[in-house]
């Protein structure tokens, strides 16, 4: 390493890795339970559609098939994200969670758009729907969805993966509520278009939230600075520390939704290299970004350098 440079990576990341793995395992368990419940509800709705001949139940069951596939993708991604790093994959398979979130978002948008198009086409057709049977199976579906929501609720803010799965289950629950309301309206008034109107409302709820999930996942892929972190404030705070002259090449991105990383070049007083204070300064920098800001950055890499070294670099500084 050239004179006047000290580089180090936060040790917080090593200690926190076990916590990440534990969180991934907990997320996998939640997704597994939610998938089991979703499949049970799916079977019940398929049986109900076969016994009653209800097109509404069959359509809702098709929606459940899509959501079960989404949960299956999320489960596989959660399991893969807990894999250990290797020389070939130094972060393990953490980023596969983001790929799964992108797939879930696109799946939700596609299904919602198709449902709305079909619902608009069915308005005015006056299809005969067995409201009583529809109501019974919709209530069964809602009960299962509420249990799945309770399972996923505690972990939905941990990762995009769990958030996407939670959104799909919430969409299922709202679908069941909409079917219940439509069944009651059809039962009491004979207004068959209530079923189509309910489907349109469900699509209007799902699409903007799915777009938000898609945008957040793209933000991770594009290494956008986390929303809750002001990069200017980070720079100002680091430059205010003793012995720090300036900070450049400051970057904050995310490997996955719950794993932010920071790299920075820090120009320090020459005396730090002469009297051995550089390692202590490195520790203070790492502790600062791990605990001072709204987003805790436990994986950070700082390169401490002198003014002379910065002048020798041939890339533009940010």
| CATH class category name of the largest domain | Mainly Alpha
> What is the quaternary state of this protein?
single chain
What is the fourth-level CATH superfamily of the largest domain?
Cation efflux protein transmembrane domain
What is the CATH architecture assignment of the largest domain? Up-down Bundle
User: How are the strands ordered across the major sheet?
Assistant: 1-4-3-2
Q: What letter string, H or E per element, gives the SSE order?
A: EHHHHHHHEEHHEH
Look at the structure and give the mean pLDDT. Answer: 78
Q: Helical proportion?
A: 55-70%
Q: Number of folding domains?
A: 2
Fill in the CATH topology of the largest domain. Answer: Alpha-lytic protease prodomain-like
Could you explain the architecture of this structure?
The protein has 318 residues and is of the alpha+beta class. It folds into two domains: 19-221, Alpha-lytic protease prodomain-like (Up-down Bundle); 226-312, Cation efflux protein, cytoplasmic domain (Alpha-Beta Plaits). Helix content is 66%, strand content 11%. It has ten helices and four strands. A four-stranded mixed beta sheet has the order 1-4-3-2. Strand 2 (244-256) and strand 3 form a beta hairpin. Helix 1 (12-52) packs antiparallel against helix 2 (55-81), helix 2 packs antiparallel against helix 3 and helix 3 (96-122) packs antiparallel against helix 6 (194-221). Residues 10-23 have low confidence and may be disordered.
């Amino acid at each position: 390493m050239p004179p006047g440079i000290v580089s180090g990576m936060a040790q917080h990341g090593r200690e926190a890795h076990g916590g990440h793995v534990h969180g991934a395992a907990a997320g996998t368990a939640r997704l597994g339970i939610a998938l089991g419940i979703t499949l049970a509800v799916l079977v019940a709705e398929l049986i109900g559609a076969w016994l009653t001949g209800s097109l509404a139940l069959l359509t809702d069951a098709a929606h459940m098939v899509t959501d079960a596939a989404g949960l299956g993708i999320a489960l596989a991604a959660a399991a893969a994200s807990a894999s250990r790093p290797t020389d070939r994959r130094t972060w393990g398979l953490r980023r596969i969670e983001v790929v799964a979130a992108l797939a879930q978002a696109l799946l939700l948008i596609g299904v919602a758009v198709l449902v709305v198009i079909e619902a608009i086409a069915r308005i005015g057709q006056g299809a005969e729907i067995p409201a009583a049977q529809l109501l019974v199976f919709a209530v069964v579906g809602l009960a299962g969805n509420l249990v799945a929501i309770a399972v996923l609720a505690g972990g939905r803010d941990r990762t995009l993966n769990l958030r996407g799965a939670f959104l799909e289950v919430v969409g299922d629950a709202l679908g069941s509520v909409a079917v219940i309301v439509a069944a009651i309206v059809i039962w009491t008034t004979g207004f068959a278009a209530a079923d189509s109107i309910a489907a349109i409302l469900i699509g209007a709820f799902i699409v903007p939230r799915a777009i938000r999930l898609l945008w957040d996942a793209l933000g991770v892929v594009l290494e956008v600075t986390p929303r809750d972190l002001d990069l200017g404030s980070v720079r100002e705070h680091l430059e205010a520390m003793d012995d720090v002259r300036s900070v450049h090449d400051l970057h904050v991105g995310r490997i996955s939704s719950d794993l932010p990383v920071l790299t920075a070049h820090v120009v320090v007083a020459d005396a730090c290299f002469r009297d051995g204070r550089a390692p202590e300064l490195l520790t203070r920098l790492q502790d600062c970004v791990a605990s001072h800001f709204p987003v805790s950055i436990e994986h950070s890499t700082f390169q401490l350098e002198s003014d002379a070294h910065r002048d020798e670099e041939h890339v533009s500084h940010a």
